[in-house]
Amino acid sequence: MSDIHTFTQQILNRKEQECQKHKQQAEQHQKERLALALDEINQNEQLMCQKVAKDIHLQETITIQQLTNHKRNVVLQHKQDKLHALFDKAALRMKHWTKDEFSQFLYKVLHQLNNQKQYTLHLGEYTSFPLQETDLSLETILMQQTQSPQITLPNYVKIGKDMIANEAGFILEENGVRYNYLFNALIKEVKQDYISALLQQLTE
Questions:
Q1: Per CATH, is 97-194 categorized as 3.30.2320?
Q2: How many Cβ atoms from other residues are within 10 Å of residue 95's Cβ?
Q3: Which of 68, 88, 80 is nearest to 196 (CA)?
Q4: d(Cα 180, Cα 173) in Å, to the nearest integer?
Q5: What is the dihedral sign for C-alpha 49, 50, 51, 57?
Q6: What are the boundaries of each domain within the chain?
Q7: Contact at 8 Å (CB) between 102 and 151?
Q8: What average pLDDT does the chain have?
Q9: Between residues 122 and 203, the one the model is more confident about
Q10: Quick one: average pLDDT of 90-107?
């Protein structure tokens, strides 16, 4: 009987050991699964935090760029408005030049021309100063500096019959080619150059 009891006890002990082993293995497996799950959660949280940080940085960059662009556009608009006002005043001032002021400008332009060619001068409606054709060279006219009520033209410039309506300044015509010195056109050209230079300066 004692042998049977001993054998039975051994079987029970063995089963108990096996159950304990299975229990330990199950607990270990459960711990490993829990550790993997926690690690995955931590990784997901890190990725989410990185994404949030990246999105915040991107939004900050976009906002800063938008503010920079807005500031630049405000500055550009302000300077453009000042330039437009300045050139409008210049155009108005030129429109009301005296005969002496206009003749000085005209002679500077004529001095740049080829005096071996023939030109026709067409005045704008708002620059209707009396003109006088002569056989004199431009140098002689400038040396004489007479106080004539008329503007004396050199021998290579003739008076045109056509007056340009609603304009100040003049056009020089040579063999079908017209050189535009109307004040509005000159102001517009210079103004565009200034605005282009200003825009380039602000975008650099």
A1: yes
A2: 15
A3: 80
A4: 9
A5: positive
A6: 1-95, 97-194
A7: yes
A8: 87
A9: 122
A10: 93
Q: How crowded is the C-beta side of 157, counted as CA atoms within 13 Å?
A: 25
- Per-residue pLDDT reduced to its tens digit, 20-34: 887 788 788 888 888
Six token digits for residue 162: 């056509």
Burial 163-198 (b: 16+ CB within 10 A, else e): ebeebbbbbbbeeeeeeebbbbebbeeebeeebeee
Q: Please name the amino acid found at residue 98.
A: T
Retrieve residue 168's tokens: 């100040």
The letter for the amino acid at 5 is H
Report pLDDT digits (tens) over 165-191: 999 999 999 999 999 999 999 999 888
Q: Which residue has the tokens 């829990």?
A: 34
Task: Kindly report the pTM of this predicted structure.
Answer: 0.64
Are β-strands 119-123 and 157-159 bridged in parallel, bridged antiparallel, or unpaired?
Answer: parallel
Band (41; pLDDT cuts 50, 70, 90):
confident
Q: Which amino acid is at 186?
A: L
